[in-house]
Amino acid sequence: MQKDIYKIITVTLAVLFLVSCDSTKDNQPTTSVIQEVTNVVASKINPPPVESPSFQMSQIAEDMVTDAEVSATSKDGIDGGHAYYDKHYQTATFAGDGSGATIAIGVDLGQNTAEWTTTSWTPYFDNTIVKQLAACSGDTTSSLAKRDVTNLQNIIIVWNTALNEFNTQEVPNYYATALRVFPGLSDLSINAQSGVLATAYNRGFSMVGASRVDMRNLRTAVANKDYQGMANACLHMKITMRDSWNNAGIYEGLAARYDATAKLILTPDN
Description:
With 270 residues, the protein is mostly helical. It has two domains: 38-43 and 52-79 and 160-270, Lysozyme (Orthogonal Bundle); 91-157, no CATH class. Helices cover 58% and strands 3% of the residues. The chain is built from 13 helices and three strands. It has helices at residues 2-25, 33-38, 59-69, 82-88, 114-121, 127-134, 142-151, 159-181, 190-203, 213-223, 227-240, 242-247, 251-265, and strands spanning 93-94, 101-103, 107-108. It has a three-stranded antiparallel sheet with strand order 1-2-3. A hairpin with a 6-residue loop joins strand 1 and strand 2 (101-103). Helix 3 (59-69) runs parallel beside helix 9, helix 9 (190-203) runs antiparallel to helix 13 and helix 10 (213-223) packs antiparallel against helix 11.
């Protein structure tokens, strides 16, 4: 009888071990989704979920983000948009150290996974071009990013395609992650949700490190439905990130962006 019990225990442990090994093979997360996502430092986003929730930014937010993402990195502030895009952004560009080849409306191929890029751009290009874009995944060193930019000059993305991809691919997939990183987000006004999403689109989802204090404060304010706290977190980025943004030569533009974001969060929906 005792031997039978030992046999059952041994078999059970063996099965549990095999199941554990099998799940490890698939790289299943062992921490909560929020912890997994917010501990990411370098990666801007995760692979898109199978089904992303439907979300449409307010028009004010869309205009703000597209103007900010498609603008000169100079002291002129936010000066982008459709006309500027047609002159400077129809082909891949290099945004600076730490960035990969950037296309369309602020889509950093180096920070995106190949899976993300493939899913996002398959509706717009044939397989050859999509593979060319996806091959830039992970290339964030300046030499590799500049090489990718040169190699991608044959791909032209017109404004309407860029805007459509932004609204149908980037926004819903970022929103899916934002819902997990910012508990309570869906309870806010559309303008406030759009402001939080616009911030994540620019700064990513990491909550780790001294430079992310404003992101952590933003997360707390979202959970508390504290609109003024959300606005204050955005405004405080101009202090926290001053040296970093100045060194990159983009302080004025990003300061203007977060002034606009704070204002957006506090603006009631129409």
